Amino acid sequence: MTTQLSEVSRPARLAADDEGITIDELALAARNHGMPLEALRHDVTPQGLHYLLIHYDIPHLDPATWQLKVAGAVETELTLSLAELRALPSRTVRVTMECAGNGRAHLRPRPISQPWLVEAVGTADWTGVPLRTVLETAGVTSSAVDAVFTGADHGVERGVEQDYQRGLAVTDALGDDVLLAYEMNGAPLPPQHGYPLRLVVPGWYGMAHVKWLRSIELIEELFTGFQNTVAYRIRQDREEQGEAVSWIAPRALLVPPGFPDFQTRERFVHPGPVGLTGRAWSSRAPLAAVEFSHDDGRTWSRARLGPDDGGRWAWRRWSAVWDAVPGRHTLAVRAVDAEGNTQPDDGSWNRGGFANNLPHRVPVTCLS
Amino acid sequence: MTTQLSEVSRPARLAADDEGITIDELALAARNHGMPLEALRHDVTPQGLHYLLIHYDIPHLDPATWQLKVAGAVETELTLSLAELRALPSRTVRVTMECAGNGRAHLRPRPISQPWLVEAVGTADWTGVPLRTVLETAGVTSSAVDAVFTGADHGVERGVEQDYQRGLAVTDALGDDVLLAYEMNGAPLPPQHGYPLRLVVPGWYGMAHVKWLRSIELIEELFTGFQNTVAYRIRQDREEQGEAVSWIAPRALLVPPGFPDFQTRERFVHPGPVGLTGRAWSSRAPLAAVEFSHDDGRTWSRARLGPDDGGRWAWRRWSAVWDAVPGRHTLAVRAVDAEGNTQPDDGSWNRGGFANNLPHRVPVTCLS
Question: ipTM of the assembly?
Answer without folding.
Answer: 0.95
